[in-house]
Structures are given as C-alpha cells and as structure tokens.
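Lab meeting notes turned into a lecture example. A postdoc, R.K., suggested we walk through two folding results consecutively so the class can see how the record format repeats. The first protein's sequence and structure tokens come next.
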Amino acid sequence: MPRDFKAPVNVSPLIRFGRWSFLLLGVTYGATRHSYLQKKEDKTKEIRHKKIAEREAKIAAEKKKFVEDEIKSLDVIFNPPKTVT
C-alpha cells in the first residue's frame, strides 16, 4: 500500500542561510581544531618515540645481562669446578 506524503514546505531563505552558515562554521571549526591537535600530537610523538627507543635499549641490555648470568649459572651446574683432593 503506497504511502502518501504531504507536499514539501518552502523553507524561509533566512533559515536556509542559517543552516548553511552553521554547516560551514562547523567544517571550519573542525579543520582548525584538527590542525591544532595535529601540531600538538607531532610535538609529543617525537618525545614518545625517544622514550620507546630508550626503554627498548634498556630492556635489551637487561636481557643480555640475564642471559649471561644464566649461562654462567648453567655452566657451574653442568661443569662443576674440580676440587683437588
């Protein structure tokens, strides 16, 4: 069963102008806000990458030290020092 709609209402030019104005203002605000946040993020991104690199280097050094200690302890377990009798 087809539905009958009312005829469209003519919208006032003032209302139409207001709608378009707010749409353009919103787009402009979004673009400027995005630009501001992008600049802020670019500054913090560099700092964050430096911290990540430092942390990874520290973890790698700790792993290397742990492996060396583990090898030493395994060497002592499997190859005990010879005692002189």
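The second example is placed directly after the first for contrast:
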Amino acid sequence: MDLLDSILNSMQKPPTASEAQKSALKKQKEALERKQKDEKNRLKKFRQQVEEKIGEFIKDGNKPSLQFEPMEQTYRSIIRDVAETAGLQIFSFGQDGIDRYSVVYTKERGPSEDELSVRRSGGVWSEDKAAEMALQHIEMKKQAALNIEEERNRKRKHGKEQLSGTFYKQKYAHLIGEDAALDAAHKTNMNKTYGEVPSENKKDSRSIEQTMADIRAKKLKKAENKEATENNHQID
C-alpha cells in the first residue's frame, strides 16, 4: 500500500443518501417544534394581556364597553374565553378575515339595538352617534303623534267612528266564510239618514184652539165608534 492509498483510507467516507435525508428531517422537526413553542408562548402572553385589560375594565365600572382591534379568529377565541369566564357579554362585528373585531360588555349593560344595528352595518359607534340616534327616535315619535292626531281630526270631520264593513269582514270571514262576512258587512253599515228628522219638522205649528178642536173631534169619533159597536152587539 502506497502513500496515496493510506491517505484515502484515512479520510471519512461521504454520508449515504439515507443519512442525509434523516438529518434534513431532523432539522425540519426541530424547526417546527421551535415554531410551535414560540406560537404557544405568544398565545399565552396574549391571553395574559387580555386578562389584564378585562380585569381593568371590570374594576373601572364606568366604561360601557371594551373594544379590541381587528384580529384573527384564534385570538378572538381567546378574548371570548376570557370574557365568558369573567361572566361578561361579548359580540363580534365586521367581516371575518378582513376587519372582524370583538367588543366586551358587562352582564348588566349590554349593547342597545341602535348600537348593534350600527356596528353590524359596518359603522362606528360612539357617544356622538348614540346622541344622534336618540334625536332620531324623538323626531320619529313626534311625527307618529302628529300622524295620529291628523287621523283623529280626519275621522271627526267625517263623523263619528263606526264599525266599517271592511273590519267586520276581516273579523268574521274565518268563521262564516268570505261571502257571508261581506254580505253581513253590507247589512251592518249604518244608514246615516235613518231616524234623522229636521228639528223644524218636530215642532207643532198648530194653535191652541186647533189643538183643542182636534182633541174633541178625536174623542167624539171614539165615542161614536164605541156606540156603534155596542149597537151591533145588541142586534146580534
């Protein structure tokens, strides 16, 4: 064996293909484990931050809500878990994957219908928005009251309120049938001219002498009829 052979034999042989693959897989596994560990620590730290924020929110007692920034579903689920564990209400708004965010409320003071409507439509809720919505409700109530008063005035103008045929039909159609209810409705409509006599026609325009003469004539006629009746009985 010469010097060259001795040198070649002393050198380390290159790793086989299987050993290279094993080494690569091992490195990938170690990298994945480090990544998972980092993510676990990050979520744990985030949960601690959420617990601190919610704890401060509960202690304050004056804030109506606690809003978080838009974030992924994984982080929102942690907020929900912490809030529900603390006995609070939580709602999420916005489009998932884009701008969905969570808002926490106390158990006693949840969101109003106005707030839910604004947030669900993509709007921003604030004290100014709440005041604006309150004014809108006041104006709507005023308008509704005016509409009711106008309707009452219209009915007064057209006479006393009465049971209309349409109402009668709607009320009894399911009991006696559509046609029968409609016929009954027509029959129950009040005749406004019935029983209405002008006051001038009710006055007795006769004089006292004429009235007395008419009374005596009626009595005389009644007596004559009575006498005729008695005569007829005697003849029989």
